[in-house]
Specification:
The structure holds two protein chains of two kinds.
Chain A: H1 2-9, H2 14-32, H3 37-95, H4 111-117, H5 120-151, H6 158-166, H7 173-183, H8 190-197, H9 214-239, H10 243-251, H11 256-267, H12 269-284, H13 287-294, H14 305-315, H15 319-346
Helix pairs in contact in A: 2-3, 3-15, 4-15, 5-9, 5-12, 6-9, 7-13, 9-12, 10-11, 12-15, 14-15
Chain B: H1 3-13, H2 16-42, H3 49-52, H4 67-106, H5 113-123, H6 129-141, H7 159-182, H8 187-195, H9 200-211, H10 213-229, H11 232-237, H12 246-256, H13 261-291
Helix pairs in contact in B: 4-7, 4-10, 4-12, 4-13, 5-7, 7-10, 10-13, 12-13
Chain lengths: ~350, ~290
């Protein structure tokens, strides 16, 4: 009895426990056929198991009640403000509310979503959101990994390098947008000045005004801000790989490139996962960055769903339509995060 | 051997790949610092000076001026105060709630905790746009501004709403950060305390909290940065201009002086100063924290 409670406390899996119990329960019934001698013994077993099960049930109940004051209040806030709000947002998107008076809840329809599908500006924003999400995430991961491999080469003042690379992450999008609007300034900005400085005058552009470069310029600036984060995550991942693996590959005569491509990078999967998820979260917040640079109208070449949502809901005051755009953005997030959460859950890493 | 010869042999003695390695690392330092450097230099120039000097160099002595810094500070000081009033309590509360939730969901295991935990973790990834309209509606009905007296600013309409909103949206990430830390705490130690008759609350106060100091540091730094840096909730939830937080004020400064880059850059540094200071003081700890060392 004592041992089973201990197992429950230390988080022994529920599956194995209940299997154990059902096995022990079935035992006495099989034995009763055998004779009277074992009867007494089986009775005590049954009684013990009965005690055990109720004790466990009591324990679970008491654990629930005991833990409730700790997670209950935060959960209440999260369920109300996050999940309640999303559910409410969905209801609003079904009302067709135009912002005057209060929404009419008597006739709900999916009209807003139908309208979205035939809206060319939605299609553009959707595509740009995907491009930004994928390009920003992949490029930041690649740059972060390359820098992490360099920093991992037993260099001096490693901490200084690491701190400098991570520094942009501490800045707000508002601040970085202002810095990059200056970097990209067509006449005096550092990027065009540098291009002129090395004789590449032909390559100078009005980076943030030209539809051809706008989105790429945004992605590049975001990469500047967050690739340092990938570097730190990868560096920790690299440090977790035992030295013997490098040596074994060297003895086998593998080249450095092969060593990383075949041996090291595959083992960094967990680092890639966790860094990618964080990048996706920041990519979804890129609204701040675009809003500072372009206001609510970044133009079709750089419009993304988060900006479109704000423009529709808060600039044009079409609440229901804006809510529908927000639901699409939410669904997109779920599409990325859902599989991640599932994998984490299956691996027991939640 | 002359000094030049000696230098040459020293360089020759260094591994060439090491030199290349440091060169690339320094180039990366330049890449990450260039926008800051260029902005910093520009902030010391006159409104016309940035047109005539190179963007990464200080202006000639005669044109060096601090006027942009003065103007930027004047324009942003109220926003800085509002941001501090909003962000400091929100940071502390969200970290505390996250710590409590992580304890309740990790160290006090009960059936169904994983389901609650999944909802907390998923909450980290919610795009704010998905809740913006309901939040606007909710806070227009329930304005706590006039009801909770705040000594420093008499009229705090919107600021408290914003602060509470940040607490709610900060709890998920704080819970995740604390949870990964609490999962490593030895259960047997907590069991021993329990056998000695300690209640869950006592265990939290006497064992968990003292052990949490490093993770509290990381969480507070991260949360402070996130809340201080937010723009979206702030523009939607605070309508009164005198209650604007610093990111909103900075955005307006940028919008109203489109071609005054010196003023914009000085403003960016003034607004970023608190998080930069926090980062410079605790950057290494933060780097360790985000990497999960």
């Amino acid at each position: 009895m004592a041992s089973s409670i201990f197992a429950a406390l230390t988080g022994d899996t529920d599956e194995s426990r209940s299997d154990d119990e059902s096995q022990r329960r079935s035992e006495p019934s099989a034995r009763t056929d055998g004779g009277t001698v074992t009867d007494g013994a089986s009775d005590t077993t049954t009684a013990a198991v009965g005690d055990d099960a109720t004790a466990l049930g009591r324990l679970r109940r008491s654990r629930f009640l005991e833990s409730l004051p700790f997670w209950g209040p935060p959960a209440l806030l999260v369920f109300f403000f996050v999940y309640g709000a999303i559910a409410w947002n969905f209801v609003i998107s079904l009302t067709g509310w135009e912002g005057l008076g209060s929404p009419d809840y008597s006739s709900l329809s999916t009209e807003m979503y139908a309208q979205l599908l035939s809206d060319p500006s939605f299609a553009a924003a959707f595509q740009n959101t995907l491009v930004l999400l994928v390009a920003f995430t992949v490029l930041s991961l690649i740059l972060g990994l390359l820098v992490a491999i360099l920093v991992d080469q037993k260099i001096r003042i490693e901490n200084t390098f690491r701190t400098i690379y991570l520094l942009p992450m501490s800045l707000s999008f508002v601040v970085t947008a202002i810095f990059w609007s200056w970097m990209y300034n067509p006449s005096n900005g550092l990027i065009n000045e540098a291009l002129r400085g090395i004789g590449l005058d032909a390559l100078t552009q009005a980076w943030l005004a030209d539809p051809q470069f706008k989105l790429a310029a945004i992605i590049f600036a975001l990469m500047w801000q967050f690739s340092g984060y990938c570097m730190v995550v990868y560096l920790a991942g690299l440090r977790a790989i035992p030295e013997s693996q490098y040596e074994a590959a060297r003895i086998d005569g593998a080249s450095t490139i092969k060593l990383y491509w075949r041996v090291i990078i595959p083992q960094l999967r967990a680092s890639t996962m966790s860094a990618a998820v964080v990048l996706v979260v920041f990519a979804l917040k890129a609204f701040d960055f675009l809003f500072v640079l372009f206001g609510v109208n970044p133009g079709q070449s750089a419009d993304i769903l988060s900006v479109m949502m704000y423009r529709v809901a808060f600039d044009r005051i079409q609440w229901a339509y804006g809510s529908a755009v927000a639901m699409v953005l939410f669904a997109m997030t779920l599409g990325v995060i859902g599989p991640y959460l599932y994998v984490q859950y299956r691996r027991g890493e939640l | 051997m002359s000094a030049a010869d000696r230098l040459q042999t020293t360089i020759a003695g260094l591994d060439r790949t090491r030199i290349a390695l440091y060169a690339v690392l320094l180039a990366m330092v330049a890449f990450y610092l260039a926008p800051l450097e260029s902005g910093f230099m520009t902030a010391f120039k006159t409104p016309d000076g940035f047109r005539t000097t190179t963007p990464f160099a200080l202006p000639p002595l005669g044109e060096f001026t601090l006027s942009a810094w003065g103007t930027a500070f004047d324009r942003l000081s109220n926003g800085l105060l509002n941001s501090a009033l909003m962000a400091v309590p929100a940071t502390v509360l969200s970290a505390l709630f996250g710590s409590l939730a992580a304890y309740g969901l990790t160290n006090l295991s009960w059936r169904g905790q994983i389901g609650v935990l999944v909802l907390f973790v998923a909450g980290v990834f919610i795009p704010y746009q998905a809740v913006l309209v309901p939040l606007t509606q909710f806070w227009s009905f329930v304005d706590l501004g006039g009801r909770i007296p705040l000594a420093i600013v008499a009229d705090n309409e919107g600021l408290i709403n914003l602060s509470i909103t940040h607490v709610a949206y900060g709890i998920p990430i704080c819970t995740v950060l604390f949870r990964s830390y609490y999962a490593t705490i030895d259960d047997e130690m907590l069991e021993a305390a329990r056998l000695d008759g300690a209640s869950a609350a006592t265990i939290y106060r006497r064992i968990i909290l003292p052990l949490s100091i490093p993770i509290f540091a990381v969480t507070l730094i991260y949360q402070f940065t996130q809340i201080w840096n937010d723009l979206l909730f702030a523009i939607v939830l605070v309508s009164n201009p005198s209650n604007q937080v610093v990111t909103v004020a900075l955005n307006q400064l940028q919008g109203s002086f489109v071609q005054q880059f010196n003023l914009q850059m000085a403003g960016a540094f003034v607004a970023a100063l608190p998080t930069l200071v926090v980062y410079v003081l605790f950057g290494e700890q933060f780097a360790k924290g985000v990497a999960g060392d």
